[in-house]
Design goal:
single chain, 194 residues, alpha+beta, Nucleotidyltransferase, domain 5, 2 domains, 4 strands, Putative transposase, Transposase_IS3/IS150/IS904, nucleic acid binding, Integrase_cat-core, RNaseH-like_sf
Length: 194
């Protein structure tokens, strides 16, 4: 821009003195600006470290825990400047439907969780995991004797094949004897996936 317009003309247009313009160009960066630049980097790192879920006040405490001294107001101001926002929590997704007319398998286990040998009682359940792409369902099968995860399966949908795949993987891995009790406390799972 200096090649096209003389400095004197630009200074007059912006109502700035020429001496002020030249002084600003040679003046060192002020301490506050340097500190803000360093804080911006720290705030970005803390924002990512906290999985973008902390507001300004919690972010301030996190920074203090990591040895960065500042004020909540300054964190709020710099977050706004950097356009950082907390991720919104995904809406709760119910996975159990107890209001149905399907037959329910009998509760053979009856809360007797003490088991004296492996591969006698397996328990299973389905949970969901929020991801950036949406929900992911995890069906897990655990041996009650030692707490070992003997089988699992994941899918984008909670289907009959998800539970069957988890049980199949468990039986393929452990080869249990006859008489194994496979229990799920989720009535939804017991009825829907029989």
């Amino acid at each position: 821009m200096r090649q096209k317009y003389p400095i004197a003309l630009m200074c007059r247009a912006f109502d700035v003195s020429e001496s002020g313009f030249h002084a600003q160009r040679t003046r060192p960066v002020c301490k506050r600006k340097q500190e803000n630049t360093r804080l911006e980097i720290e705030i970005l790192a803390a924002h990512q470290r906290t999985r973008e879920t902390y507001n300004a006040e919690r972010l301030h405490y996190d920074l203090a825990d990591h040895g960065v001294q500042t004020t909540p107001y300054r964190v709020r101001t710099l977050r706004k400047k950097l356009n950082l926002r907390c991720k919104q929590k995904l809406k709760f997704k119910a996975t159990t439907d107890s209001k149905h007319h399907l037959p329910v398998a009998p509760n053979i286990l009856n809360r007797e969780f003490a088991v004296n040998a492996p591969d006698k009682v397996w328990v299973s359940d389905i949970t969901y995991i929020p991801t950036d792409e949406g929900w992911l369902y995890l069906a897990g099968v655990k041996d009650l004797f030692n707490g070992e995860l003997v089988g699992y399966a994941m899918n984008e949908r909670m289907t009959r094949s998800l539970v069957i795949q988890a049980l199949f993987r468990a039986t393929a891995k452990k080869h249990p004897d006859k008489g194994l009790i496979a229990h799920s406390d989720s009535k939804n799972t017991c009825t829907r996936f029989q």
